[in-house]
């Protein structure tokens, strides 16, 4: 099994490749236009209180755009909802719902002009847009300084035979500092002091050198006054935590002041790390993701609008071996691996691997039942392989353009790394 040579990948559990081919190399996102992503969703347009819009944006962070639109409409940001965030350095096409707009506000929305943003009002709906409305994403991605069509075909054949690993991508663990899973582990250990300082001060080699230097000094001194004096204003969460500490709150109390979505992210990131390590172990031992045993779990999916839509329920194989094998061959189901939690009922190979990983980290499944709701998780499952579709590529000059469709929750960079054998951000 081909091992990743990139420490940043290995640190989050992405340790291997499913394919054995050499990589085509190359880089992505040299320009925002090199990375295009379009949401695939089913809209139910009707009379209702939600205005549905389609927005094409270039090099815009989703949250920042929501703030700008809300300000122009003079409404609360909470009235604008969407199915998920997208990478800033990209061209992204997303759907949003806005609650309770008057006819006058809708006309104003149609006339809003924002640089590198196109807003198309589609109509009204009785339902808001949320994560459950997203079927998947269609990608058009240019990989520059790469070219080898024969190698791409060979890699594709291996992925179809072995399965493409459905790792959580680096983005799951942070932006430039991939440390959220480390924070999550310390929270599950109830070591809030260490969780606090990892989040605020743990240095990361690929961060801005000036900020990294500040973090290095702060990591050693653990002096909140130093951080408040030196940290730039954009590190607002770090500054807020340090200010809380300076005002006499404990590290535990300070962490609880963070926004709910950020608090949820920590333990979820640790679960993702354990999933990635379990998936790496599975590939090493079985050398593919198509082998399914009696004690394994499986997930199901079906085609819809060009994407394989993953269903929400996962089931143990048990006596269904023949049926599962048939559905696997028909590309309607695949192996699923655990995202551990306090309600996880692990069996067989997965039980042995996950419990050993947790034990090595000094925790067990019961630790996911946390006294603070935002740090608690029942657990779930996730497909071990990506059911990709609509794959094609085109070579031109010194780049390769890939087009493919992935179900929601799967990462384009994880899929492409099998072809490039590089660390893609």
What can you see in these coordinates?
By secondary structure, this protein is of the alpha+beta class. The chain folds into 4 domains: 10-32 and 138-165 and 392-420, no CATH class; 39-135, Alpha-Beta Plaits; 173-258, Orthogonal Bundle (Hypothetical Protein Yqey, Chain: A, domain1), CATH 1.10.1510; 278-383, 2-Layer Sandwich (Pseudouridine synthase). The chain is built from 14 helices and 12 strands. Strands 1, 2, 3, 4, 5, 6, 11 and 12 form an 8-stranded mixed beta sheet that branches. A hairpin with a 2-residue loop joins strand 11 and strand 12. Helix 5 (180-188) runs antiparallel to helix 6, helix 5 (180-188) crosses helix 11 and helix 6 crosses helix 9. The radius of gyration is 23 Å and the shape is globular.
Please sum up the structure shown.
Helix content is 36%, strand content 22%.
Strand and helix layout:
Layout: H1 7-10, E1 35-41, E2 50-58, H2 62-73, E3 80-82, E4 91-99, H3 103-111, E5 117-125, E6 134-144, H4 149-162, H5 180-188, H6 192-201, H7 209-221, H8 224-230, H9 236-246, H10 251-255, H11 260-286, E7 297-304, E8 307-316, H12 321-329, E9 333-339, H13 348-360, E10 380-383, E11 389-396, E12 399-407, H14 412-420
Parallel strand pairs: 1-4
Antiparallel strand pairs: 1-6, 2-4, 2-5, 3-4, 6-12, 7-8, 7-9, 9-10, 11-12
Helix pairs in contact: 5-6, 5-11, 6-7, 6-9, 7-8, 8-9, 11-13
